């Protein structure tokens, strides 16, 4: 068994802050990498040591494996936490860390490779007898593939084998365009992932995205920490997640979670992982993909189970056995996570940029705010526009919705456009409150979820505040002597 | 002393007058006593008539950001002089970025004469690529970003040298 004393965090923003927080509690030192654009962000100040990394683009800096390993050697780090995104699911990175004597806090590079290739992952799942949606894999003869794809029927999804996380996906409803769409998808896939392999899958209408958190230790024990529902998505990206899922009966919950455990066992999975399923309206569920890393939405699981998932990851990486029995892992209450994005929901979710003039996080019982930025920092288009997460826990779903809406209401972020008001409108929608969710929820209710113009009373308040605060106006008014000042704008 | 402010693309005229110690807002022929008292970093108590509201407010140049009634509002102060000039979102000589993003490829060079419709550069945002094409024939005066540089929305991406024919016309407009 190893002792982890110093973790090198190969990530940035709120997840880097979150990993550092647990490390501090465990008495573990931290080293963080950063690109110049992130020099003033929270993780750089919170870590014990910070080192600049360089790249052709800011994102590329966080992908420089050689530089990261060199920093590991230099600082005497004994382990690496990759966070999510960037190198978290890069099998070569995981292997390179282990070869360099740095414990990779995550699963084995072989299973990362298996689950990262979405076609190989599906084949593995099918061979083990788990349910997948009807699909067609590319064959040597493109004509055969086209025929098989057509047989799946409409609507269908074209997905990139090297994609995942919603990237490189397209929905086809008109099969006459199939050949052209396949060609376009392949060229796009080659451009973005360096791999043009694609596959087709039957598209389930009104699907619900249900995923299960699993953990495996080096001794072969596997447990699940229940499920999360992530059906509220825009552009195939999750923006609201919750646990437990309002869609499942206790029996379905038991089935989906134990299936996830079986999949993890079959893959001899070690450390944190999430198995994503698609649930159709008739209650059937199908394997979608497995993510071999910690997920953005992991905090909702922490809120209802009471576990610190990063602490579990570190302990497993150090070789400690999972000291928990499945029957002792319970869900208490309900939790939501809302992702705050710098974007304009009323303008096709156009990414927004700007300086954060004021940031005031929401506080209160059951309220958690994960963020890597503070006032004075700028949000640019260099990175993903997610700037913070509001995570809320309460006794039941109804209470959790009310508490989350209040937290969003109280979140002050001045200086750029964000989706906080939009998130609140979603949660106030009667269908959301009734738990009638599916992955097209937002698209279907586009008009209903649009922001409304301020009423006269609100306009009056805003103009009063603007006039009073606006230095020029205020000064001009104060400088004018009486009686002219009281006369206002009256002129001959 | 009339102030023009823009909220969600609607413009409003209003002004403040002082009656003794009390500030009064004049809006739509209505006069309302108002006050703004600071009580923390960016935090204020706004009083409009008899109602008090806790707000947060920050100003940056002509942009005023206010958190009020659980929402964030962006109010723009309209400079009356600027409204007179023809400055708007870009001129016929420059192209502004439609969204924040990164330059993926440059297809033309500074000083190059290109024809209308030619692709000047390819930009990328949210994994979507867009081509910036020449909107007229002309000579490229300047390209402001290199491949892999990032830019904000409305950033000037490329300018054409002013068209010779337009420069030859007599300019009757008053200077700004």
- Compute the number of helices of chain B: 2
**How are helices and strands ordered from N to C of chain B?**
EEEEEEEEHEEEEEEEEH
Q: What gyration radius of chain A follows from the Cα positions, in whole Å?
A: 25 Å
Strand tally of chain B is: 16
Lateral strand order in the biggest sheet of chain B: 1-2-3-4-5-6-7-8
Q: Count the strands of chain A? A: 23
Largest sheet of chain A: 8 strands, antiparallel
So how many helices of chain A? 19
Q: Extract low-pLDDT stretches of chain B.
A: 85-89, 165-176
Distance between the termini of chain A: 89 Å
Q: Which parts of chain A are unreliable, with pLDDT below 50 for 5 consecutive residues or more?
A: none
The shape of chain A is globular
**Biggest sheet, spatial arrangement of strands of chain A:** 14-13-10-11-12-15-22-20
How would you explain this protein's 3D organization?
The complex is a heterodimer of chains A (492) and B (176). With 492 residues, chain A is of the alpha+beta class. In chain A, 36% of the residues lie in helices and 25% in strands. Chain A contains 19 helices and 23 strands. Chain A is globular, with a radius of gyration of 25 Å. Chain A starts with 5 loop residues before the first strand and ends in a 5-residue tail after the last helix. In chain A, 50% of the residues are buried. The mean pLDDT of chain A is 93. Chain B is mainly beta. Chain B is built from two helices and 16 strands. Chain B has an eight-stranded antiparallel barrel. In chain B, strands 9-16-14-11 form a four-stranded antiparallel β-sheet, with no helix packed on it. A four-stranded antiparallel β-sheet of chain B has the order 13-12-10-15, with no helix packed on it. Chain B is elongated, with a radius of gyration of 23 Å. In chain B, 23% of the residues are buried. The C terminus of chain B is likely disordered. Classes of the chains: A alpha+beta (492), B mainly beta (176). At the A-B interface, strand 17, helix 13, strand 23, helix 14 and helix 17 of A face strand 1, strand 2, strand 3, strand 4 and strand 5 of B.
